[in-house]
Structure formats: structure tokens, C-alpha cells
Amino acid sequence: xxxxxxDHKMFAEINTSQWMWYFYNYLEDKNERFTRNRDLVEYxxxxxxxxxxxxxxxxxxxxxxxxxxxxxAGIEYFFGRKINLxxxxxxxxxxxxxxxxxxxxxxxxxxxxxxxxxxxxxxxYWLNMDLE
Length: 132
What we know:
Layout: H1 16-48, H2 50-64, H3 68-79, H4 87-91, H5 100-113, H6 123-127
Helix pairs in contact: 1-2
């Protein structure tokens, strides 16, 4: 189902949430294929150079682990402003509940404020974007 051309008739009457769901699952499948292929290559390489494969896996695991303060600093740098999270939110791994009504209202306000975008980023932009 994923990878169906965007001009297919099944897309004629779907809403934005359904597009997001489709795109999310498309990317998840792409990520699963990448992980499966990488693991298969590592499996075969482990018969020839097990120490090298172990070092690669350790390096990958260590590269993903980012301390909370560095992560927050990176997000603040990316957005160009402080995000002012309470200290307990910066160090916890628990999810934070969000009121959907407030999130939708803020999203709509943001869209109204930023209507001056010179191009539209829609589903076709994201489907053609290579994230690897």
C-alpha cells in the first residue's frame, strides 16, 4: 500500500489526518527496511570481523545517547529562542499530556501568522524528500 502514487483515486477524498497517518506509516516502513538491511549486513559481517561490527554497534548506540542539557540546547538553537521547560520536564522520560484543543488552536494561530510562506509544503513535498 505504501508508495502508491499520490494521484491514485484512493487519495481523492482523504483528509489531512489521513494523509499524516499514511505518511507516518510510509516513513516507518522505510525505516524498518533500512534497519532490517543494516542488521542483515552486520550479521554477515560479524562472521568475518566480529570485533569491527561490535565497535560499529557501540559507536551507533553512543552517538544516539544525548544528555538532556545538550538536547535542550540543540532545540533552543534550532528554534532560535529559549523553550523554558521546567527542570523536571528536561530530565524525565515520561510523556507529557497535551490538551488537543489547545494544540489545534495554537496550530491554527501559527498558520494564520505565517500565511506569507512563498511555497506550500504539502504531502508531495514530504513524499519526495529523502531522509536518509
